[in-house]
Each structure stands twice: as structure tokens, then as C-alpha cells.
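hey can u check if this looks right to u? its 256 residues, i copy pasted from the old doc so theres a chance i mangled smth
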Amino acid sequence: MPQPWEDLFGPLRKGAVDDLVLIGQCGQSIDGRIATPTGDSHYINGEAGLDHLHRLRSLVDAVVVGVGTATADDPQLSVRRVAGPNPARIVIDPRRRLPATARALRDDGTRRIVITARTGEAPELTGVEIVPLAHDGDQLSPAAIAGALRELGFRRLLIEGGPDTVSRFLAARCLDRLHILVAPIILGAGPSSLTLPALQRARDALCVPMHAHRLWPNMTQPNDLAVDVFNRKVDILLDCDLGGYRLPIGRANMSA
């Protein structure tokens, strides 16, 4: 794999903790916002940042989103901007709120899975696999979700959104890498890209090895962060290595 691809994607080949590789991703402004207070987010990141997201999708077995993102943004979760196969599309929907018309559920030959709480009758969605899991209120355990997807044959998982879903996987120590795309804009207000349990002391903050890359449109330019980027929509990619923080994933408690 040629540079700079090896630095970014080489670690995604094989898990360092177990046989899974879980990658979280989020796009944000310099001040850590993912949208304006009105919810507008199209598009905070530039063309190269969108290309990077689609490239990640092409390299994983499945892309995972929460039901909030699936309903509010109605994403296609496909590979359109780069060459490669479409990943399986997985929606976490504990209370079964996802409408059958969601684009993530469209029948295009790609595997589709809804992970839900083990209560009542499973939703009737033609051609969609339903995975019921034990639950804690309205929440499903990130480790149980990852374990269930492992048992379905998936090994590389992209936890794409939204911020609550990515934050829950991070807080549960279920991510191997976290890719944060930082756009050269300041929004000043709006929802944050990550929301984690509050810390009392700054010294207790999670510190991880991290590499920064400039995302040029074709990724052929040097990754020199000192190069002038004024008047250019050039995202910075922060590649965070969470391997030393991640916990092993056990077997899921799935119903028959």
C-alpha cells in the first residue's frame, strides 16, 4: 500500500486487541461543532473530507449509524465518491423508530441490518435482518453490538454517527481508531462532535497517540501542516490510535 495510504489505512487491516477493528469518525469545525444551532451541517467538511469518509466505507465490512442519524439525515451510507464495494448498512434502533422508507434500508443488493432491543415483536422490514439484543432502558451496549456483528461475520466496522453513537462507543472503550476531520471554520455554537462523561480534573483526560494529515483532494501532496492553507477548504485529519485503550469484545447475548 503506497504512502500516504499505508499510514492511514494500514492499521485497519487487522485488530490489535482481538479479531475486530472498530473505527469511529466525525467531521467538525475548529471549535468542535458538527452543525449550527439550527441543525444545518451541509457541508462543514470539504470535498477531500467527504472523499475520505467514502474511502473508509469502502474499506470496512459494515457501516454503523444510530437511528437519530438515519432518520434526521437519511444517509445513503454507500460508496459513491471513490472506487470500492458498498459496506453492509447497520442501524442501531432500540425503540424501533426507523421508517421502512429510510434510504439505509433500500433494497439494492447490499446487506441491511437493524439492531434493536429485545422487547415485543420484531419489526417487519422486508429483506432486512433484525438483531434483538438485551438492553438497559433505551440503550444498547456498544460491546454487545460489536459482539453481535462479529457473530454475523463482520470484522471491520465503521461507527459513522451520529455524535451520541460515536461517543458511546468511545466511552465504552470499543474503538481502535478515531478519525476526526477538522474543517477550517469556526461555528461558535451548535452540537459538539463528542459528548463524554464529565471529568473533575484535566489530568484525567484520555491521552492517545495521534497523527495529523492534510487532506488534499487527491492525497498526493506532502502532509506538511506548516504549508499555507488560507483561502482553501482543506480539512485536517486527526488519526487517533485508541488501541491501548480498547477493551476486548466478548460474545453477544443475542436472542434466537
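The longest strand covers residues 21-28.
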